[in-house]
Structures are given as structure tokens and as C-alpha cells.
Amino acid sequence: MTWLVTGGAGYIGAHVVRAFRADGIDVAVIDDLSSGKAEFLVECVPFTQANLLDTDATRRALEGATGVVHLGGFKYAGVSVERPLHTYTQNVSAMVSLLAAMEEQGVGNIVFSSSAGVYGTPKDEVVTEQTAPDPQSPYGESKLIGEWLLADQAKAAPLNHTSLRYFNVVGSGDPTVYDASPYNLFPIVCDLLTQGKVPQIYGTDHPTPDGTSVKDYVHVADLARAHVAAARALDSGKTLEPVYNLGSGTGTSVREIMDAARRVTGIDFTPTEGPRRPGDPSRVVASGELAARDLSWKNSYTVDEMFATAWEAWPKA
Predict the structure, then answer these.
(1) List 119, 139, 166, 178, catalytic entry
(2) pTM of this prediction exceeds 0.70
(3) Tens-place pLDDT, residues 127-139
(4) Is 202 a residue of the active site?
(5) Which end of the chain is more exposed for a tag (fewer CB within 10 A), N or C?
(6) C-beta of residue 98 within 8 angstroms of C-beta of residue 6
(7) Pick from 40, 27, 15: which is nearest to 222 by CA?
(8) Could you tell me if 293 and 178 lie in one domain?
(9) What SS3 class is residue 4?
């Protein structure tokens, strides 16, 4: 049983690789290192440096594989509005190439890293799998199209699949692997505090208990274990739901994260406050009930633990 992790040199992918190995499952990686980091790779794990658009290289990387965890792609929702063609090429055309290579190699299992971005800005305060998708960026649209591709391919060829949708991935399960995204809240706060600067809260007039927006945050180690559970289920022949939300059902406010940062780092700071950013929802969280039922999944970290692991892994030099 060997699983190929696409994007396995990225922040999430590197954690998925480590989770598979910790569970005794052989794994290989394909990544073009456009955003992944070579230092996140595990030395003894077979690695192919290639873009998934290179179908021949992808086919070779799939030799001997039982299944695929598909994390590779372009992940920046905001930037995708400015670069729609690039986003669709890396997230849709690349998946077509991957599925073609899988069919040629007879690989019939895939766990797709989708996104809660498919929901856009939902009216439901707690998002379930029955919440209607309404993506509001090329990124979200590309993830939804990826789910459609899986469903359509499964009608035409042997393919067991499931897609995992989640919001904000945070923390670290390995002090050598960290989130380097310039757009995510945790690395932004870590970077500013490291530089001796003060983080900012955008919007303190939301209809929430402390006035700041509430969102779902999932620890990357919990997320990685969900991918392992899904892979094991598919490999055993179990039929899974086409999509699962990975969420807490409650969420965490921006101010609660700032308070956690103060406690964890010991840096006494008061965040500055600014106006809301356009389109920023007041409260969006996801229910993880289906994932708990079928994948024995739960969000097991407190907000302090989430920030503590992110801070430990963040490069200070």
C-alpha cells in the first residue's frame, strides 16, 4: 500500500506525508516546488520534481501506487481573482492530467484536498455538506470543478474518491514545517511579532460576542490524520461520502487568537484595530459531524495549542 501525495513538499502536504508514515503507510511525493519547500521533504520518501501538467512524469510517479492524496495546486483565493487562467490551469487542467495518469496506471483511489472556499460567503452560520456551494473566486470555483471531475470520472472508470473541505489550516505537527503563506492569519501574526511589530484586527463591530469575526481553524496535524483515515477507508473498499467538512462547529474569533498569541509568546501587545475588509463574513464555521461519524475525526487542539505549535515552528532568525 503506497500513496502518492501531490504537493507533498507544501505546508499541508508535508504533514500528510508524515502522518502516513507514522501510520505505517508507504508514501511518495510529486511536487514542482513552486510553493513547496525542498526542506519539508522527508529524505527517505521517493520524490518526483514535476508539475502535474506533465502527464508522463505523473504517470511514472504513480508506478506501484495504491492511491493518491491530491493537494497540489494554486491555493491563494484572493490572487486567483487577478490570475484566473493560472488558477484554472494549475487546479483544473492539472487534475485532468492527474486523473488521466491514474486511469492509465490503474490507480483507483483518490482523496482530494478541496476547500470550504466552494461555499463562498454562506448564509448558514454553521456550514454542512448540504449547504449549497456558491464559490466567489476562481480558486473556489476550481475546487468545486475538481469535485465534479472526480464524480464524472467515477462514472466512466473505476474510481473511489472523497473530497475534504476545510477553512483555515493552522499550527504545526513538526517544528521543521511551518505555514509560510503571506495571506494567512497565524503566519502574519507570527511574522509581525518576530519583527517586534503589532498585529492588526480588521473589524471590531461584527455581531459576535467580542465584535471580531469568527472562523473555523483546523490544526494541520488533525487535518493530516483525516487524509490518512480517508485513504485507509477507500483502500479497504469502504464507500465514503463524496465530500466531508472538517470543522469545529463553533469557531474562534480573531480577538481570541490575538489573546492566545499574547499568552503563548509572552509578548505583551495590544492589537491595533481597523475597519472591516470588504466581504469579510462575521461568522462562518463548519460542522464536522459526518467526518466524525465516518473518519473518527475531530478537532483536538485548543486555540492556545494551535498557536503554540505555529510559534514553535516559525523561523525566528
Answers:
(1) 139
(2) yes
(3) 999 999 999 999 9
(4) no
(5) C
(6) yes
(7) 15
(8) yes
(9) strand
